[in-house]
From TrEMBL:
Domain of life: Bacteria
Species of the source: Falsiroseomonas stagni DSM 19981
NCBIfam families (UniProt xref): fkbM_fam (TIGR01444)
Entry protein name: Methyltransferase, FkbM family
Domain Methyltransferase FkbM: 59-209
Gene Ontology biological-process entries: methylation
InterPro entries in UniProt: FkbM_mtfrase (IPR006342), SAM-dependent_MTase (IPR052514), SAM-dependent_MTases_sf (IPR029063)
Gene3D superfamilies: Vaccinia Virus protein VP39
Alphabetic keyword roster: Methyltransferase, Transferase
């Protein structure tokens, strides 16, 4: 038995009763849940504008489930798959799925894996009060998180929409997903760190994608809504 200290916040949002488990009210994401609101309202609105009804949705870097819960409750997806490597985030994510009656509607079978360009192992590094800002150190001492290529981990699944937020590892993750992206041509909402901006735009051009919307919340990165051309 394992006990996680925290509280459950219930809030009416969009005509539904949404529940969040909050373990740390000072956390960058969980403080919004503690206030009874989804994190990144502007980004979620962009996703909603471009999300096809009945889409098969994959949330890469799902963290505690903010975007996955929103998509499952409000966007009428055919399926939702969550991928998150960091154990403390996974614990809260699972609770948020249970609290919102989503445990049977969201595929959590791939939790515990990280995505990368090649297989390997990694260790999570968690900044203070920012579980969502956790990064992975590849092939580090004490690494316990298995890394897989998205083409392998998600093989056989239809993908219509990808949300990708992997704290600077986006180019490697996308490289490992190119086969599935070529097959399904999904719409994608991707957080891109500034250092990756130029090669990311080159990657978009090579794969035949165009930018339809952007949003910058933090100085260090920008979100891109991209669609196949």
């Amino acid at each position: 038995m394992k006990r996680i200290n925290g509280s459950v916040v219930t809030a009416p949002i969009g005509g539904q009763e949404i529940r969040f488990f909050v373990a740390n009210e000072r956390d960058a994401i969980q403080k919004h849940h503690a206030a009874g609101e989804f994190y990144e309202a502007e980004e979620i609105a962009i996703i909603a504008r471009h999300f096809p009804a009945g889409a098969h949705y994959v949330d890469i870097g799902a963290n505690v489930g903010n975007h996955a819960v929103y998509a499952a409750k409000f966007l009428a997806p055919a399926s939702v798959v969550v991928i998150e490597p960091n154990p403390p985030a996974i614990e809260i994510l699972r609770l948020n799925l249970l609290l919102n009656d989503l445990a049977s509607r969201v595929d959590a079978s791939l939790l515990g894996f990280g995505l990368a360009e090649a297989e390997g192992m990694a260790r999570a590094v968690v900044p203070p009060n920012n579980l969502g800002g956790s990064g992975l150190v590849l092939d580090a001492a004490g690494a316990t998180i298995p890394l897989r290529r998205g083409d392998d981990l998600l093989a056989g699944r239809r993908i219509d929409f990808i949300k990708l937020d992997v704290e600077g590892m986006e180019l490697g993750v996308l490289a490992g997903l190119e086969g599935l992206i070529a097959t399904w041509r999904p719409r994608m909402f991707i957080e891109v760190h500034n250092r990756n901006a130029a090669p990311f735009r080159q990657w978009l051009a090579r794969l035949g994608y165009g930018v339809r919307d952007t949003f910058r919340r933090y100085p260090s990165n920008e979100n891109f809504m991209v669609v196949p051309e």
